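Reply to dn_fold:

You asked what the input looked like. This is it:
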Amino acid sequence: MILETPKQLAARVGLRVRQIRSLIDSGKLEYIMIGSRVHIPDGAFERFVEQNKVTPCLDGTRVQDSNGIVTGQLFTSAGPRTDAAASAALARQTAQKLKSSSLNGCAQGTAPQAQVIQLKP
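and this is what came back:
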């Protein structure tokens, strides 16, 4: 079994020693204690990378023509945007109703000004 120190691993993978030690301290990177020294077993960093790999999510899908050739055109669904727009419109409508029904709302001239009560310091 091959073991590396945090300094050796940092140099091999292009990170700072502090970043490697942070991964060890947070329990994200496997390590072995030999006496009072930390050693990383062979393949531990590669397993860490594989477990934390993020796969990008594309906005649309490529369309194939009738011959099965990808055309390069992207089509996206308007679903989330439509839902967000409807939600925002409902929020604005609700806010407007609350303002108009409030005695101290923002409607100009329809309600008396709120009375300010001075507090003793």
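The two ends are 71 Å apart (CA to CA).
Hope that clears it up.
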